Amino acid sequence: MSFPSQRPRRLRGTDAVRSMICETRLSREQLVLPLFVKQGRAAPEPVASMPGVFRWPVSGAVELCRKANDAGIPAILLFGITDAKDEEGTAAWDDGNVVTETVRAIKKNAANLCVMTDVCLCGYTSHGHCGVLREGKIDNDATLDRLSRVALCHARAGADFVAPSDMMDGRVGHIRAAMDAHGFADTGILSYAVKYASAFYGPFRDAAGSAPAFGDRRTHQMNPANAREAIREAVADAAEGADMVMVKPALAYLDIIRRVRETVNLPVVAYNVSGEYAMVKAAAAAGWIDEKAVVLESLTGMARAGADIIITYHALDAAGWIGEMT
Ligand code: PBG
């Protein structure tokens, strides 16, 4: 046989062949749009470190949900922002808070949309920690009860999935039991199962005003160096009743997405987080990269790694770009 016996380029010669052998196709149906809603009726506030992202009043959030729905995006993930903070984060489970108000409004105006809500205390506590403090440390088990109250509050408002992002031990089982006991067996749990203590959350904490007033989140979020631990977290959350498991952030953790995909037979969700978004936006604004190409390449990488669903601040743009391709 003459050299070379393999000519991989034969499969790259034309659009027709390239498309025929394409192994990973992004679809709009796998995108989730994160949304920040703020108490009050003020105009949308731009988030400086996340160009194109705003803190919305309820009406604006609903409008954006309609847009997402029209763009073929099936789900949104809601984050509430409030000034009503206290030591325990009681506003998080107040049935009149901005999250419940928004969930109800979305259910009225964009009924097809799957509504997911972030469940954590850090945006509601005066100290910015994800749980109740005792002598300066997070009390895991005392926090579980509060998290379940938050989940129930969102479920009562009509959330389809609650998404605990706090990384307390045992919270998925605790929330599952509480929701079952109160008649919300059909409300699902998207667990932030594998959440690293990441510097990529910086812009989000600006957006949500949820940075810890002292210390950091390394006693509950994972060390970026650890992969086997990710499997233990994902397996535990599956056993506790999670319906979907998340890996977060995405780009620096594609190996983790793959390993979780191969170990747990639940839908795997990648969270393309705020810092990942900010880097792309900044480089694109400087004219250093082609935003559309970089976003589609990144999202394709997450899907190829094994993500069934991708939460991304690029969702609206990406849905449009995917639409152009198909
Ligand atoms: C709340 C929460 C955070 C994110 C989602 N939920 C921040 C954190 O853990 O400090 C980060 C999302 C992003 O960076 O886009 N616990």
Provide a short characterization of the protein structure.
The chain is an alpha/beta fold.
Secondary-structure map:
Blueprint: H1 15-20, E1 31-38, E2 45-46, E3 54-56, H2 58-70, E4 75-81, H3 98-109, E5 114-119, E6 133-134, E7 137-138, H4 140-157, E8 161-164, H5 171-181, E9 188-195, H6 202-208, H7 228-240, E10 244-248, H8 254-263, E11 268-272, H9 274-285, H10 291-305, E12 309-312, H11 315-325
Parallel strand pairs: 1-3, 1-4, 1-12, 4-5, 5-8, 8-9, 9-10, 10-11, 11-12
Antiparallel strand pairs: 2-3, 6-7
The structure holds ligand PBG.
Ligand PBG binds next to helix 6.
Task: Describe the protein in words.
The chain is an alpha/beta fold. It has one domain: Alpha-Beta Barrel (TIM Barrel), CATH 3.20.20. It contains eleven helices and twelve strands. The strands form two sheets. It has an eight-stranded parallel barrel with strand order 1-4-5-8-9-10-11-12, surrounded by nine helices. A two-stranded antiparallel sheet has the order 6-7. Strand 6 (133-134) and strand 7 (137-138) form a beta hairpin. Helix 2 crosses helix 3 and helix 3 (98-109) runs parallel beside helix 4 (140-157). The two termini are 40 Å apart. The structure holds ligand PBG. Ligand PBG binds next to helix 6. Residues 118, 120, 122, 130, 165, 201, 204-205, 210, 217, 273-274 line the site of ligand PBG.
Helix content: 25-40%
- Examine the secondary-structure arrangement and name the CATH architecture: Alpha-Beta Barrel
Q: Tell me the count of domains.
A: 1
Small-molecule binders here are:
ligand PBG
CATH superfamily caption: Aldolase class I
Number of strand segments: 12
CATH class categorisation? Alpha Beta
